Fold this protein.
Amino acid sequence: MDMLKGALGSFTAVAFNGAQILVVLVTVFFGVVFMLMNPRPIFGAMFAMLPERHHGRALVIMQRIGKSVPAWAGATVVGMVTIGLLVFLLMWPIFGIMDALVLGMTAAMLEAIPFLGPIFSTVPAILLALGKGGMTPLWVLIAYVAVQALENNVILPFIMARRMKLHPLAVIFSMLLCVAAFGVLGVLVAAPLVTIISIVHKELYRKHYLPTVTDADLDRLARIALHEKLSDDG
């Protein structure tokens, strides 16, 4: 009896924490949507916090950040479509085309919710697999775990890096740091944070301390540091 009460208490605690995380994720999601629909008040508040003499430089930085938002949104959509397609292709031989299509669409839509989304997308697949019997549930679970591992370590960093013109390694380390600092919500801000830091670095640090150094100069120094042979025109 005590063991049953303990298990029930643990399940209740996990369910309560999961519900709290889901509420936060939904709130953040709609907050981001509303901000993208009307970002003017947010930008105005940022200008209000800066001295007037810095408004010119801040305007350039915010314009560049504003241009990066569509790239981030596009990368997120591409990631959702990629995960949905992978799930569809893996589930097709097991469940047939119609069920696999539904599972793929479900995985794609829930991909917008970090951490909990992939878990929720696994549930209907496992339930369908239980109806098949045998080792099917295990193979389905392994397939979903493989897709998520591939997504978190390869697909998402690569897509974010290509669409937002960032180095994949920078995106990967940003995700690790943001998850450690902010929890599962850190995945949402990892790539945009790298973009913002890069823009601020170029507009403030490089223009002040490295005004005559170009990207080609930096690449040349990196080649020398790595003992790579320089081309005749470099």
Q: What stands out?
A: The CA atoms of residues 18 and 66 lie 33 Å apart. Residues 1-35 form one domain.
